[in-house]
């Protein structure tokens, strides 16, 4: 019977694997420490702690499929590995954190190709790509996306608030209500919930039994879901602020509304998943 990909590796391969793991720890220890500090300090990426765990669980969940694959090491994996290490080196020289951190994906792919071959690498591609969700975007890119989203969220909220009978005026990302003024800042732009929802929908789609096409539909459903949940949050905040003043938009209620967006988004994601499962025709 043919040896499985993950069962009883030859001793030289085990030694090589241990050497590779030691090298990865030496190369990326400082990078992961700094990234973990970003996850702690930057609320936009607080979900980062869960991404490696989910990626690891993805691999573990298909362990039986991996065992059935034959080990056919691909020497050209060295080229992919060299490209990843080259990205890491150039990014370090240029002090570019996003490229430093994301290089781990290319490095891991090269290692899998070199040690296990293309069949195993193909299976591992999705869990490896999922690791991108743990890497914070460069601030210049984040801000270029966040500000247009602030304007968009403000404009849609103005329309909705007016439609429910609350007088409101808007200038840019500032909403003027009868008793107070609300500014739709970066944290309320919806980009934070968008990144979290994409990470969540990616996991939902991967673990679902949907067809490939419907998995992509579920994944991209994260965008309208996150935007809708954020508009509901802003509308609710504006409604309360118009009645009770600007203080309701601060402190505990502001933090709670962020949790509310996540819960609403999660509910809509589960609903969309069930809807897609139900429409099998």
Summarize the structure.
With 281 residues, the protein is mainly alpha-helical. It contains eleven helices and three strands. Helix content is 71%, strand content 3%.
Describe this structure in words.
This protein has 11 helices and 3 strands; from the N terminus they run H-H-H-H-H-H-H-E-E-E-H-H-H-H. The protein folds into 2 domains: about 10-135, no CATH class; about 140-280, no CATH class. The chain has a 3-stranded antiparallel β-sheet, covered by helices on one side. The protein has helices at about 10-40, 50-60, 65, 75-95, 95-115, 120-130, 140-165, 190-205, 210-220, 220-245, 250-280; strands at about 170, 175, 180-185. It is about 70% helix and about 5% strand. With about 280 residues, the chain is mostly helical.
Task: Fill in the keyword field for this structure.
281 residues, mainly alpha, three-stranded antiparallel beta sheet, 3 strands, 71% helix
């Amino acid at each position: 019977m043919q040896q499985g990909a993950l069962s009883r590796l030859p001793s030289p391969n085990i030694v090589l694997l241990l050497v590779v793991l030691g090298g990865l720890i030496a190369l990326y220890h400082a990078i992961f420490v700094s990234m973990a500090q970003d996850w702690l300090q930057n609320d936009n990426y607080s979900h980062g702690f869960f991404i490696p765990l989910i990626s690891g669980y993805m691999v573990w969940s298909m362990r039986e499929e991996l065992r059935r694959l034959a080990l056919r090491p691909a020497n050209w994996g060295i080229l992919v590995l060299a490209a990843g290490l080259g990205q890491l080196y150039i990014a370090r020289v240029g002090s570019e954190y996003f490229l430093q951190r994301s290089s781990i994906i290319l490095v891991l792919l090269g290692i899998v190709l070199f040690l296990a071959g293309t069949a195993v690498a193909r299976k591992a591609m999705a869990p490896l790509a999922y690791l991108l969700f743990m890497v914070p975007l460069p601030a210049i890119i984040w801000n270029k996306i966040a500000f247009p989203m602030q304007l968009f969220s403000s404009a849609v909220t103005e329309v909705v608030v007016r439609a429910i009978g609350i007088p409101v005026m808007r200038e840019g990302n500032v909403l003027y209500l009868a008793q107070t003024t609300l500014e739709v800042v970066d944290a309320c732009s919806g980009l934070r919930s968008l990144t979290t929802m994409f990470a969540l929908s990616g996991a939902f789609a991967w673990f679902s039994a949907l067809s490939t096409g419907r998995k992509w539909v579920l994944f991209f459903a994260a965008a309208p879901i996150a935007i809708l949940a954020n508009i509901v949050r802003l509308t609710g905040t504006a409604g309360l602020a118009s009645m009770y003043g600007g203080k309701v938009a601060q402190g505990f209620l502001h933090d709670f509304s962020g949790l509310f967006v996540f819960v609403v988004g999660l509910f809509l994601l589960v609903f969309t998943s069930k809807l897609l499962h139900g429409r099998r025709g």
